[in-house]
Structures are given as structure tokens and as C-alpha cells.
Amino acid sequence: MQFGIFTVGDVTTDPTTGRTPTEAERIRAMLTIAKHAEDVGLDVFATGEHHNPPFVPSSPTTLLGYIAATTSTIQLSTATTLITTNDPVKIAEDYAMLQIVADGRVDLMMGRGNTGPVYPWFGKDIRQGIPLAVENYALLRRLWDEEVVDWEGRFRTPLQGFTSTPRPLDGVAPFVWHGSIRSPEIAEQAAYYGDGFFHNNIFWPMEHTRSMVRYYRERFEHYGHGTAEQAIVGLGGQVFMRARSQDAVREFRPYFDEAPVYGHGPSLEEFTAQTPLTVGSPQQVIDRYAAMRHDVGHYQRQLFLMDHAGLPLSTVLEQLDILGGEVVPVLRAEMASDRPASVPDAPTHAARVATARAAGTAAPEHDAPTQDRWTGRTAEDDLLAADAVSGERA
Question: Which of 3, 167, 190, 306 has the fewest CB neighbours in a 10 Å radius?
Fold first, then answer.
């Protein structure tokens, strides 16, 4: 099972000091956080995609490309790639490029986002959110899976004989999660393609999460991708920890009360009772998150939101130390203790390439990169032909 963190990249005033970081400071902090996540033994770093203040991660591939160059093991992902307002052609190209740059350490999470005004900013109609998500992803899959694409749909200009470049690494596209909080249509889409379903349940009670994941599992099995327990599931979460729970509550309360995402609403106590937000000791976090497998079944990825609400960088790094040093090792062991052998591991590029090669659908290990995909000719053929012409002239 994979454990990691995701960021929404908010620029928020620290309510205890009144200081607001600059956008540059916030972006550099995210880079530091990603590297520290690898250092403390986490498996995944994911970034959201936002195009409005107070959020800064408008270019996830730029951010993740830099992180890929400064890390060596951590899986890089998005916490949302906007499948509705981004052109599928650009997504195909950008993430295939990132996949190569990161040597396969990349997957992405498709989502519609949670900011309504972003649709007209990119020339789209929010009332078409679900149809856009369905059509755009269908095109994206074809762009990655097929060398030459002819396509016509409702929401973009047609394509004729189009090849997306670069091609996916080893002939295997990045793994895709479909993220949704409340839309069964997106769970259906994930199940139809046999992709992962990520329920970012940070604002919802467990009964809602249980219902959405159960629906996805049932539909995954219906489409013939495996049994319901073999479906690929991820969950979101939020924690803040100190050795003593009362210290954690006291320190985190001002950040919670003023946070742009949930401040000025339910109390901290109400919110922690009704959602996965856990503010307390490491053991309280372990107990709560270990129990989630009993609600949704054994799953593959757990991501935590750690760097939000104006928390200073030094505090976030301390939280990562606790998460990586005290919480995740125990959760790994606890989750593995009763995990059935039939439940798959979280997808990785290496594992998916091995599966594809066994099925004969991946690029061969020593595929000639100079071969023309349309004529079958290679650079060697052209050189020999040129030599023959030269010999005749001589």
C-alpha cells in the first residue's frame, strides 16, 4: 500500500503571526515538502491544479518535473488534473513527457475541479462538466493507446491522422486515477476503463465514502476487470499531530478556524467527528486510518493533506517527520496484517510494463527508436540506400 501527501497549494495567512507568504515562497515550500516526503519514507507526492487565487499550482507538470530531478524514489502524481478544461491533446503530451523525465515515476488523477469560474476562463461551460469529463478522457485514452488517431467529438476540433508526441514510456501510459467526491458518473468512468478511483473524502462522513467506493467496486467487477476487491482505490485524509492530543488541538485550532476551505463553519470538534480530519496523537491517527479498510475494503493509496491553512513550513516538516517516522510504519504493518493475497498492490510503472510485455502490448525492451512507424524503414536502411547511391556515382 502507498502512503503519501497531497497539496492544494493555497497561499494563506498564518493566523498566529499575521504573515502571508509570497507566491514564490509558497511554491519553493512545496518543492521542499516534496523532497522531505521522500526523505521520511513516504511513497507519493501529489499536487492539485488550480488557476485562481489563493492557489498557486497552475502548472503541475512544471512543478513535478523539477521534483523528479531532485528525488529518486517517490511517486509523483496530481491531486487533480482538470480533464474538463484542459485540452486532452496537451494532457497526453505533457504527461508522457513528464513520465519520461521522471523515468516512470508518474501517475495522474483526473478531476473536474471545485472552482466553477475556471470553466469560462478556458472557454468551457460548467453545465457540460460531466460530458466534458467523459469525452475528453475517451480521447486521451486513444491518444496514449493508438499511434495514429482520427477523432471527432462535441467539444474540440476534429483530429485527422494525429500522433501525440512523445509516446508513453515503454508503450505504457501513466496510470490514471479518477477523483471524485460526489459524482457516481466519475466512479462509473473509472470502473469502465479499469482505472483507479480516488475518493478525496476530506469533507465527507465515512458512510458517504463507503457508498461511493462500494459502487465503484461493483461496477469494476461488472465490466470484467476483476473482482470487486481487486479494484484500485485511494482515499484522502487530513491530520495534525503532537505527542499529546491536547497540544495538537490547541496548536491547530487557529489554523482550522481561519482556513479558507473550512474556516468559519463547523467547529473543529464537529468537523473531526464527521470527516477524516484527525487532530491528536500519532496513535489516534493510526487507530482511525487503520480502521478505514473495514469501511471501504483493503485499498491501495492513502494521501494526507498536511501543508494547508497557513501552517508554516517548519511545522509541516515536523508533521512529515511524525507521519513518516511514527505513523506510516505502523499503518503499513497494520494494513498488511489481514490483507488478502488477492488484493493487488498499488500500480507502478515497472509492474504495468511487465504485465503489458507478458500480454504483448508494451514496447519491446530494445525497440529500435529510429524505425519509422509508418514505412517500417530504419535509419540503417536509409544509410545503406545512400551508400548504394554513392557507390553508383563513384
Answer: 167
